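Here's what a typical entry looks like (Aldo/keto reductase):
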Amino acid sequence: MVSYRYLGSSGLKVSEITYGNWVTHGSQVDDTHAIATVHAALDAGITTFDTADVYANTAAEEVLGRALAGQRRESLEIFTKVYFPTGPKGPNDTGLSRKHIRDSVHGSLRRLGTDYIDLYQCHRFDYETPLEETFGAFADLVHQGKVLYIGVSEWTAEQLREGHAIAKDLGIQLVSNQPQYSMLWRVIEGKVVPTSTELGISQVVWSPMAQGVLSGKYLPGQPVPEGSRATDEKSGANFIKSFLREEVLEAVQRLKPVAAEAGLSMPQLAIAWVLQNPNVSAALVGASRPEQLADTVKASGITLDADTMAAIDTALSGVVYDDPEDTYRVSPKSRVA
């Protein structure tokens, strides 16, 4: 069964392996299989579920809402996000303005079939809206009981510090950041993690398996497997491209004996690695079929010894992305239309 960790400095516990439905629900996987996979996650002890209104243009929230219908709401932690455009993509259908936040949260509540969201996250930083306006809108939602905690996604250390200060002044908690993080993508370690640790903000990390590359199924010198994420433009193909370089794929193959020595599958090794970071509260995992979860949830509670951690670094030497400056290149400088 899955272990639990506190979310930031709050009293909220979340399952350290959290189910995310970014590229599956409403697009890659039909609803029947999606709902079966959510139920498998529940059976495995996962109680925390992450989505966003923009995923499959709101369809992912709808599917998750149907999958969780009938479950005891008090036993679940439901996360969603706001920023990117949905619907007809009018001038106010994007960003972190008070209007867009208000309209978006009510749509998310309706689609998810709940009267409150445990963690409502800024999907990106909005350079075109004052932070005071954004957090004022969030504070209203918290005080109304529609949202319990506030999080962000892919914010820089400086943005986290400024947002945390404003949230504190408004009497609400900024408890989490949701960045990409894996053995191959470590850009948050330089600035974001130390700042977050200081402020009581934890990481809920996405793509701990580097879009599936750390599973070892992408082989150097070979075509990408048919039906894999790398072949599906709707399922994150653009995100995986940077990891498909020959030298990266060769390095990943060197991880196979490391995983075998530790008695783990490659996915388990990848997920266990991110969970060694004490600032990580949860690793987001997705699945297109229930049996995939049976393997990944076994990463929960595993401690990798120093020799294994060192062997991982040796195998991946020269191919790791770890420049803190990459954290400044994620949020668009102007709103996405």
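Residues 150 and 174 are 5 Å apart (CA to CA).

More examples are in the samples folder.
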